[in-house]
Design goal:
A hairpin with a 5-residue loop joins β1 and β2. By secondary structure, this protein is of the alpha+beta class. The chain has one domain. It has a 3-stranded antiparallel beta sheet with strand order 1-2-3.
Length: about 80
């Protein structure tokens, strides 16, 4: 029997407060892993995380504080804009 499972297996916090989230999609045949693929995405401080996995939401609650969001926003506004 083939079964599949997805799990958030890695959350990395960058210096500026961005969160790199990795999801592992695992395929099993008769309970033995036969394939594993990864999907990654980045969440910036202040970004809506309501649609994220519960584990990601909990980490964002701790990491994305108002001072972190304000510093990230200020740094983003100071970056030169591409034409």
């Amino acid at each position: 029997m083939i079964t599949e499972r997805s799990t958030i297996d890695n959350i990395t916090i960058l210096e500026d407060g961005q969160m790199q989230v990795r999801r592992a999609d695992i395929v099993y045949r008769d309970g033995i892993e036969i394939a594993r693929n990864f999907h990654r995405h980045v969440l910036s401080p202040g970004q809506d995380v309501s649609g994220e996995d519960e584990k990601v939401r909990r980490v964002a609650t701790v990491v994305h504080t108002k001072p972190v969001i304000d510093a990230y926003t200020e740094a983003a506004l100071a970056r030169p804009q591409l034409p």
